[in-house]
Amino acid sequence: MKILRGFFYAFLVALVVLLAVSILAPNSVAADFLRREMAPIMFISLVFFLLMGYPVAFSLAALGLLYAIAGIELGLFTTNLMQALPNRLFGIMENDTLLAIPFFTFMGLILERSGMAEDLLETIGQLFGPLPGGLAYAVIFVGALLAATTGVVAASVISMGLISLPIMLRYGYDRRLASGVIAASGTLAQIIPPSLVLIVLADQLGRSVGDMYKGAIYPGLILTSFYVGYVLVRTILNPKIAPALPPEARQLREADGSGGYPSLVGLVAIVGIASWGLIQYGDLESLWGISICLIVAYALALANRWLKLGLLSQLCQQVVIVMMPPLALIFLVLGTIFIGLATPTEGGAMGATGALLMAMANRRLNWSLLRQAMDSTAKLTAFVVFILVGARVFSLSFYGVNGDLWVEHLLLGLPGGAIGFLIVVNVLIFLLAFFLDFFELAFIIIPLLAKPAEALGIDLIWFGVLLGINMQTSFMHPPFGFALFYLRSVAPDGKFLDKVTGKLTEGVTTAQIYWGAVPFVCIQAIMVGLVIAFPGMVTAGLDKGNGVDPNKVKIEIQAPPADDAGPPVFK
Amino acid sequence: MGGLLKLSAAIDRFSTFVGKTLSWLILAMVLVSAGNAVARKFFDASSNAWLELQWYLFSVVFLCCAGYALLCKEHIRIDIVAGHLSDRANQRIALFGHIFFLMPLCAIMLYESWPYLMESIRINEHSSNAGGLLRWPVKLAMIAGFALLLLQGLSEIIKQIGVMRGVYIVPRGQPKIH
Predict the structure, then answer these.
(1) Residue A493 above 60 pLDDT?
(2) Closest residue in B to A436 (Cα–Cα)
(3) How many Å lie between the alpha carbon of B78 and the closest alpha carbon of chain A?
(4) Is the pLDDT of residue A63 over 70?
(5) What is the pTM of this model?
(6) Which of these, A58, A183, A316, B24, could form a disulfide with A264 (CB 3.0-4.6 Å)?
(7) Is the preceding peptide bond at A194 cis, omega within 30 degrees of 0?
(8) For A463-494, b where at least 16 C-beta lie within 10 A, e where not — what string?
């Protein structure tokens, strides 16, 4: 600690002396040194002050201003530089894309209370229950579904930790596998559209959010299947680590004790054939054809429940009923974006409205919940956008002294061309993700990478998806991953008395949570490698996109944003 | 110190009031934005005023709730080093940051934004989009936001000094939820 403190004061004194001497004596050696090496010095002091632990947004902005003033004194900038500040801020304010941040956050908070996750986990758990590893598959499946409705990790991890984890512990799942699968499935929300990460990446890389979504669909699904594959391999090697649910734990059974699977398979087949028929012969767009069939199936399931028709098995009826709300939300959010009804921002608003209606229909919406959700959303929006404000203020002087060119030069000098660049950047992001939050990475680091990437002929959508998968790990890195924190906060620590079996059951230790995440971090790294090796995974989604490009909708309704005034040309 | 702490408590109450009141705009934003999409598709009606209202509301929320977020200690910090430091060191860092980072930042932003707002009012600036909104109210939000942040920063400085002198005890807040 003493060394650290000594280092801290030494750095602080050195910096203050350097700045003071330079400003007081603009012709001195110190001033020349500062003029020449301003960009690296800015960067080092940024790292230093960020590590001190003062809020990132304010540190960034204050450092940017400090060096702007120093630069003006040294004759690097004119005083016009400062007048560009309000314009920069205004550019952030009128950025429609950023509105998606409060929308999806609000939607996630409302959904968390709407009971959707609970219903899904219970029913899908029953569906896969008889398989070894069934609950783990259910968690992955529900994780992907929740990810496709909203982009919030906390909600998924917490509800899965509260509902699925106790059942897994009760029936003797391996603690590491159980916690790893929950944490990893929760982070799928980061990569499966509509995710906040992709929105922010698209914004920072200057690409359309719709394209970023389309590019991320296949990698997201492949990643999900890797999780399934991992559980499958583990359970084949050692079935004891994830036993099937015993018969008494499966409540959704028929009177004669059978599972009711034929009924479900039959219904799925009928829906599949009917929608194929409608699309092929009924001249309907595929989205509408499938929607109509699903709505009919839903109506059938509801009728079966209320009128006790006995047409469908218990399991089939329940699966159809719980699957409908998330599918409807996916349609509301992603469907409306892909068919060109809404911009990604408006898609978020539609989803939030849908979530409100759903919570209302389930009688789970009340004033205190609404107020809490709005309050949390307002605070989150403020701190996230302020990081961006800070980063833009910092970049005003950092780019002014050609800091971006300095970074570009460093990165372009790497051996191995585009591949070398991608590998180094990914390793860098992977390491930074251990202690930087996703938003900090996105707003500070990503803008610096965009230009060199483009210069090397890298498709920025591909690059964005790649970084998205990489940054997903920042949520599950032990020991700082947020998903692990969330899981720790809801998982029982030490022995606890199980309510159903009445037995004393082992809880989950923090070490088990950490070790459980490791295989999934490895899967993540493999996935990054695969996306680098096969860019087709990303671009395949782009070519097939139908409907109106969401960006066109935006272009016709919006005047181009005013460029920053001020001497250097910024981004 | 007692008088200052009372002032700080009053600022905290004011920031909370502003934050909680403005958070209703989140709901308004959601409804306006969803309404815009539906109106454009089904009624073929698109109004620039309503489209601009979306980001006007957004700007007001993020700017004017920044002080409230500061009060609630919501602004992200990197605690990889700070977590190992003593309470005393962390208190000093917070005080240092408030005085040398936050205060000058707010002051400079206010100083630079003021002529920006005045110019907008003077020329009665409107959006360049047809049927767009008047611009100065949203530019006023920039001033209001940084003024609120400055005010809350003052309160934080008072509280921090109070804590270091042992005359102020941090109330036990609710656990933080992200």
Answers:
(1) yes
(2) B78
(3) 5
(4) yes
(5) 0.84
(6) A316
(7) yes
(8) bbbbbbbbbbbbbbbbebbbbbbbbbebbbee
How far apart are the CA of B59 and the nearest CA of chain A, in angstroms? 5
pLDDT tens for each residue of A518-554: 999 999 999 999 999 988 888 887 754 444 444 444 3
Answer yes or no: do A106 and B112 touch at CB < 8 A: no
**Rounded to an integer, what distance in angstroms lies between the CA atom of residue A253 and that of residue A241?**
25
Contact A54 B36 (CB under 8 A): no
CA distance A44 to A42: 6
Virtual CA dihedral for A105, A108, A109, A111, nearest 10 degrees?
160
Residue A151 — very low, low, confident or very high, per pLDDT cuts 50/70/90? low
Residue A27 phi, psi dihedral angles, 5° rounding:
-105, 0
Q: Within chain B, what is the greatest distance between any pair of CA atoms?
A: 64
At B149 the pLDDT is 95
Nearest-neighbour CA in chain B from A83: distance (Å): 6
CA distances from A111 to A34, A272, A359, A425, B100 (A): 52, 29, 7, 35, 41
Please report the residues numbered 82 through 111 in chain B whose beta carbons come closer than 8 angstroms to any beta carbon of chain A: 82-86, 89-90, 93-94, 96-97, 100-102, 104-105, 108-109
> What pLDDT, on the 0 to 100 scale, is given for residue A436?
76
| Residue in the structure block whose two tokens are 């940051």 | B97
| Predicted local confidence at residue B14, as pLDDT | 95
A-B CB pairs within 8 A amount to: 210
Whether the CB of A557 is below 8 Å from some CB of chain B: the reply is yes
**How far, rounded to the nearest angstrom, does the alpha carbon of residue B22 sit from its chain's CA centroid?**
10
Among the residue ranges A109-118, A199-208, B116-125, the one predicted with the least confidence is: A109-118
Tell me the chain A residues in contact with residue B116 when contact means C-beta distances shorter than 8 Å.
86-87
pLDDT of amino acid A516: 92
The answer to whether B170 faces chain A, any CB pair under 8 Å, is no
Contact B142 A370 (CB under 8 A): no
Q: Which of B47, B58, B100, B160 to mutate to test the interface with A (most CBs of A within 10 A)?
A: B58
Looking at this protein, which amino acid is placed at residue A312? L
pLDDT tens column, B11-63? 999 999 999 999 999 999 999 999 988 888 778 777 888 889 999 999 999 99
Q: Which residues pair with A505 in a beta bridge?
A: A496
Given an 8 Å threshold on Cβ–Cβ distance, is A52 in contact with B74? no
| Contact between A99 and B112 using a beta-carbon 8 Å cutoff | no
Residue A59 to residue B97, Cβ atoms within 8 A: yes
Q: Are A542 and A218 a contacting pair, CB within 8 Å?
A: no
Is residue A155 predicted with pLDDT exceeding 70?
yes
